[in-house]
Structures are given as structure tokens and as C-alpha cells.
DNA sequence: TGTTAGCACTCTTTTGGTAAGAGTGCTAAC
DNA sequence: GTTAGCACTCTTACCAAAAGAGTGCTAACA
């Protein structure tokens, strides 16, 4: 069904209103807020037609219309007006970005937090995943007679460490030997090739007698394993209380439980699978969100030095898409601009 | 007001019932569930007296009685029966504890998670705070021409690191010199003495010319600063949906917002201030919880090697104190026992 | 032929009023 | 001191009526 210009205008008007009021929109209501130059009867006819086309829905006979998922899709793809960020919004984004913390993860959390506050929705972000990075070097540092710290520095500057405690005392000479061996054997290789099989075979060949080998190789295996699995974290979960669709305790519970534990894996997959440009997933469009009345807007962030991740907004399908998209895009722009300034210290 | 034995029995019966049903308890109701050998009229008289003494409250004239904070206090201190954990509960605790993860923080999170599941309340835990630990050694490892990783190993085996990027290229000789200098000057000292003043003075005296000094000393300052401030983390927040006092969206919102961000600092203080034995904070007893109808049960955990922290349950004042306390105490016992087994590998 | 005024009809929400239920507190008797 | 009995209070559940919002259809109109 090809939509006439008038139908598009009406659809847009309905969704614009619905996003603000969260109430089904009636024919006469539209005329008050939009100057369409037609009567309510005409609007009613068009609405009936739009409903037939699957763009609108009726909660019940005597209620106004509500957008369907298809309606939102058309709205997002071609109807909505671009949202222009206010000066205050722009300055908040800029501030969030300027305020770099000592730890990378804190920086991203800070940005995510700002986005939550700004949009009034919940923000999801992946921590930077070091998918198959290269091991740079090893250090084994004694703590006391029976324990030491094993430190692995990756090519991208990330550091992994574990305290290893063993049953009997060791002397530091062994640590030195082991350290040298690890550096000789495993440095400058991609961690992803450290499969359990490779490691098992390698362990047999170590020319150093020691009870620590199991722990050391266990850690190596974990590194290979944990790689490419950045976490998916949340900020602003309590923002959902601000939206009328979550005024029922059951809906809220469903949302909060959805966004925790069990489904976080599915959500992460969904978010990771999106492309390089900002993308919008509306309600039932994806089985993961089926019947949840939830939409996602996913964008990409990059903090330079190969640090990349996803930043997503999750909220009711009745989301202020224009504003959310503008906010995310502005943020992305900000970051890229800052990074391209060669020489700026990023950390 | 000194409570007679009969009053104590009645108070206990009321609270026992109320903890299960969450409904105001009436005089005849008590007689059904507890064999007190007196009539409902007598119970009513005693209840009126208990109310006068401040142990009970009435939601309205024709409702049953509900415990006051004072009532709960007496209940927790002298009335409640000890809860005996079921075999299934014991095995769940044991399992949670056995399943050690690679990272310390994951282990604690796992235990906290198990406790949330077991008790059906929200669990708070502090990550181990390394209050004024001693610096063991430094490593500076180059990443590329313009960046390196600075690693600081602490006496207790914890590792802190930061990637430092500088404006102009450096050669690895400088790093080596700096590394030696740091080890010579700062190893085996308590990080808490690294005040901004000390560091500023020290920076002037470094015999090595380098643009990296600011970043390096900045990191040192952060280490001294960030010390003794373990985070306060949560598991099982959505458990509150299982309790009838949170069936209203407003109460739930209040709880979830309380337990997030703004108040987390206050909560941390409150929890940290408790003593070495398991302690119970009931409703208004503490200004932080004022009018929130929330109670806390706080216990201490220790994972050996100086790793200590708090593990707390937060929930409605109508909490199953006996069960919560037993669960936490059993867990603590478990841990201590495991640790005292010399030679067991803990990590 | 597309547009519009008018109106009957439907469905939800609000309101108010009554009945049922639970529990107290008092009184008088034991 | 304890208890049976009963009047009284307050909440909750239920139902019916009224109000309100919006549609869909019909007939008239440009």
C-alpha cells in the first residue's frame, strides 16, 4: 500500500501526538494540534484506511488510534522531523564527553549515564571487547612464599592479572624461569589461538618442573575464552518509571527482569549484530523483543586506539525516536571529532 | 515497660504471622495459628496494652495489629526462634561458595547472587577495599611509540594499571629508568602516605627529564585516593517485586531509586559502620532509612589474604529476620572454615 | 467523487451507594 | 483476671448509572 501525502501527514501527526501524550489519538484531537485543513470526518476516513493498511491500531471501538510497529517503522524511516538539540542538551553531552576518568570503563559509564539523564530512557552499553588481541608480554611477581601475581599485557594496552596461590613454597628463580618461558613461547601471538587443545599440548612440553603450571595455563585458557566477550551494562534503569506505559507494576517488573540477567545475553547479541550506522529496532521486529512493547536505538562509539563498542537506548516503542537518534548521533560526532585531533591525550 | 511472658508470646505470635502473611494480624487469627490457651478477648486486651507500649500499631480502627519498629527490635533481639536451614539451602550456599571464579570480584558476586536467590531479597556487598595497602612494585611496559602501560602491584596481590599516552615519542630506555626510579622510591611504602603534597614535592626531585611525569604521578595520586573506597554493588534488585509491600508502583520506584546512585554513598557508610558481628538495622532506627520501611541485615565476609568486606540484605521491615540471619551466618561460617584449612588453594 | 455535518452506537472511566467482612473496644457476667 | 457478646468502625467488593470520548455510518453538499 502506497501512502498518499495526506495519509503520511495524518500518520505523522498521530505519532507525533502519541509520543507526547501516550494516549490514543482521536480524529478531532489531531485537528487541534495540527493544521491540516480538513474535517474530522475526513480524518476518520483516512484513519480507517491507515488501520486497514496496518499502520494504526485501535485499543477498542471507541478509543482513538495508536501506531502499530509498522506505523512506527514508516515514521522512523521517512516521516519524523529531525530533532534539533537545545543548547543545554549539547552542553551536557559535551561535558559528559570531556570528563574523562582514569579508567576507560568509567569514561564510558559516565557518557552512558549522561545519555540516560538526557533522554530519560535506559542506556545499554557494551564495554570494549578485545576480540582476539595480541599478547604483548608476561610478568610474574611474587607476593609471598606461596603466592604470586601473573600479569598479562595485551597489545592494545589492556592488562589482565590473577593472583595464584600454590600449596608449597617456591623460590623466585622458578618464577623468573617461567616468566621467560611464557614470554618466549606466547608473546606476540593472538590470544584466540590458545584453544584448550593447544594449551594442553603445550603444557606437556614445558621444560620447567613446577606445580604452578596448572594455574598458569588455566589463566591463559580463561584469557583466550573471556576475550571478545565485553559485558553489556546498564545505566538509568529507573528512568522507566517516568513513562506511563510502565505505570503498572507488572509491566515494570517484566521490563526490569527482561533487562537483567537471563536476557542480557540475547540483548547483547541483538545489539552486537547491528551495523555501523545508528539503527532502530522497533517492538516485534525482532523476536527477542516480541510482545514486550520495547524498542531499541543502537549506535556505535569509538574512543580511539581500537576501543569500540555499542551504545543503545532501550525504552517503550512509544519512544521519542527523533530525539534519541539526534542525541546519539551528536555524541558520536563529538567523539570522532575529538579523536581525530591528533596528539590529544586520550586515556 | 517490662513485658510479661504472655505479652512476649503474643508479640512473637503476631510478628511470626505478619512476616508470613503481610496482613495486619487480628486477635482471633492468632488463636488459630498459635495455641495460647486464652480467649480472643484477652488477646485483644494484651494487644491494646502492647500498642500503648509502642510495640504494635494499627493501620486503622477495624484492622488487626502490625509490628512497630520497636516491636521488630524486641523480636529480633529476644523473641524470634532460630531458623534451621534446610538441606537444600545448605547445599546451595555450599555450592555458591565452592564455585570460585577467576576473579575475586566474580567470586563475591556469585556468592551475593546465591544469597539473593536464597533469601528472595536484594543483596548488597562491598568489593574488598584495600585500605592503605602497601605498594609492592612497578612495571612500565611500552605499547607503541607513544604509549605505555603502567602497572602497580600491591602487597595483597591486587594489581592496578593504566595506559598512558604521551604527545611525543619516547625510547624504551626512559621507561626503564623511570621504572627503576619508581621501584627505588615508592616500593614497600603504604599508598596512603601518597598525599597530593608529598607527590608534588617528590615530582620536583625526579632526576629524569620526561613529559610523562605528570601522567605517572597523576596515576599514583589516584591510587592513593581510590584506595579504601571499595564499591557497593547489588544483586537481586528485582526480588522486591515478590514482596507485597512493593505491589504499588510508587513504593517500588522509591525503593529502586533509593538503592541506586544518590543514596548508595549513604548506604555504604551505614553498612561500613557496623561492627564485626552480624547486625540488624530496622526501619527508622537509622535516619538513612527514615520512612522507607526498609531494614538491613549486615554481615562480614572474609576470603582470606586480608580480603574483607560486607555482605548485606536489604528488604522491607517485614523481613524474615531469622532466616536471613541464619543464611548469612551459615555462609560466614562456611567461608571461615574453608580458609582455616591451611594449604587450600584460594583465588 | 471526495468531503463533511450529524447522530446513533460502543466502550471505558468515574461516581456513588450499598452490602459484606474483619476486627476492635466496651460492658457485663463469670 | 478472664471471657462472651455486641455495637461500632473502617475497608473492600460489587453494581449500576452517568459521563465522556471517539468511532462509523448516512445523507447532504460542492
Which ranges of chain A are low-confidence, i.e. pLDDT below 50, for 5 or more consecutive residues?
A: 342-347
Number of strands of chain A: 10
Task: Calculate the terminal CA-CA distance of chain A, rounded to whole Å.
Answer: 52 Å
Strand order of the largest sheet of chain A: 7-3-10-9-8
Q: Rough shape of chain A?
A: elongated
The secondary structure category of chain A is: alpha+beta
H and E order of chain A: HHHEEHHHEEEEHHHEHHEEEH
SSE layout:
Two copies of one chain form a homodimer.
Chain A: H1 5-21, H2 27-33, H3 40-52, E1 56-57, E2 66-67, H4 69-79, H5 87-98, H6 104-119, E3 122-126, E4 135-144, E5 147-154, E6 159-165, H7 172-186, H8 196-205, H9 213-226, E7 232-235, H10 249-258, H11 261-272, E8 279-282, E9 294-302, E10 308-316, H12 321-340
Antiparallel strand pairs in A: 1-2, 3-7, 3-10, 4-5, 5-6, 8-9, 9-10
Helix pairs in contact in A: 1-3, 1-4, 2-3, 5-6, 5-12, 8-9
The first copy, chain A, binds a DNA duplex (30 and 30 nucleotides) through helix 2 and helix 3.
Walk me through the structure.
Two copies of one chain form a homodimer. Chain A is α+β, with helices and mostly antiparallel strands and 347 residues long. Helix content of chain A is 45%, strand content 17%. Chain A is built from twelve helices and ten strands. Chain A has helices at residues 5-21, 27-33, 40-52, 69-79, 87-98, 104-119, 172-186, 196-205, 213-226, 249-258, 261-272, 321-340; strands at residues 56-57, 66-67, 122-126, 135-144, 147-154, 159-165, 232-235, 279-282, 294-302, 308-316. In chain A, strands 7-3-10-9-8 form a five-stranded antiparallel sheet. In chain A, α1 (5-21) packs across α3 (40-52), α1 (5-21) packs across α4 (69-79) and α2 (27-33) crosses α3 (40-52). The longest helix of chain A has 20 residues, at 321-340. The first copy, chain A, is elongated. The two termini of chain A are 52 Å apart. In chain A, 34% of the residues are buried. Chain A binds a DNA duplex (30 and 30 nucleotides) through residues 24, 26-29, 38-42, 44-45, 47-48, 58-64.
Amino acid at each position: 500500500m502506497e501512502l498518499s501525502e495526506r495519509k503520511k501527514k495524518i500518520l505523522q501527526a498521530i505519532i507525533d501526538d502519541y509520543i507526547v501524550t501516550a494516549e490514543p489519538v482521536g480524529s478531532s484531537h489531531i485537528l487541534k494540534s495540527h493544521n491540516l485543513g480538513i474535517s474530522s470526518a475526513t480524518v476518520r476516513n483516512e484513519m480507517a484506511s491507515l488501520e486497514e493498511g496496518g499502520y494504526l491500531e485501535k485499543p477498542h471501538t471507541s478509543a482513538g488510534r495508536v501506531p502499530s510497529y509498522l506505523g512506527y517503522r514508516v515514521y522512523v524511516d521517512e516521516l519524523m522531523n529531525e530533532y534539533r538539540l537545545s543548547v543545554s542538551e549539547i552542553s551536557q553531552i559535551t561535558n559528559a564527553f570531556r570528563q574523562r576518568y582514569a579508567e576507560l570503563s568509567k569514561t564510558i559509564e559516565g557518557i552512558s549515564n549522561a545519555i540516560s539523564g538526557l533522554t530519560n530512557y535506559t542506556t545499554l552499553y557494551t564495554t570494549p571487547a578485545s576480540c582476539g588481541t595480541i599478547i604483548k608480554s608476561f610478568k610474574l611477581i611474587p607476593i609471598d612464599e606461596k603466592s604470586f601475581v601473573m600479569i598479562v599485557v595485551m597489545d592494545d594496552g589492556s592488562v589482565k592479572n590473577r593472583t595464584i596461590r600454590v600449596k608449597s613454597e617456591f623460590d623466585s628463580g622458578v618464577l623468573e624461569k617461567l616468566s621467560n618461558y611464557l614470554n618466549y613461547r606466547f608473546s606476540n601471538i593472538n590470544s584466540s589461538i590458545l584453544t584448550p587443545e593447544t594449551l594442553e599440548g603445550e603444557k606437556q612440553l614445558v621444560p620447567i618442573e613446577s606445580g604452578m603450571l596448572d594455574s598458569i595455563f588455566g589463566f591463559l585458557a580463561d584469557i583466550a575464552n573471556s576475550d571478545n566477550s565485553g559485558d553489556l551494562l546498564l545505566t538509568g534503569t529507573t528512568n522507566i518509571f517516568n513513562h506511563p506505559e510502565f505505570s503498572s507494576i507488572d509491566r515494570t517488573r517484566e521490563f526490569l527482569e527482561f533487562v537483567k540477567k537471563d536476557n542480557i545475553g540475547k540483548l547483547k547479541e541483538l545489539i552486537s549484530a547491528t551495523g555501523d550506522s545508528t539503527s532502530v529496532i522497533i517492538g516485534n521486529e525482532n523476536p527477542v523483543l516480541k510482545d514486550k512493547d520495547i524498542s531499541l536505538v543502537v549506535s556505535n562509539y569509538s574512543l580511539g586506539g581500537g576501543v569500540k563498542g555499542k551504545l543503545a537506548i532501550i525504552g517503550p516503542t512509544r519512544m521519542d525516536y527523533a530525539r534519541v537518534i539526534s542525541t546519539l548521533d551528536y555524541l558520536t560526532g563529538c567523539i570522532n571529532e575529538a579523536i581525530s585531533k591528533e596528539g590529544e591525550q586520550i586515556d
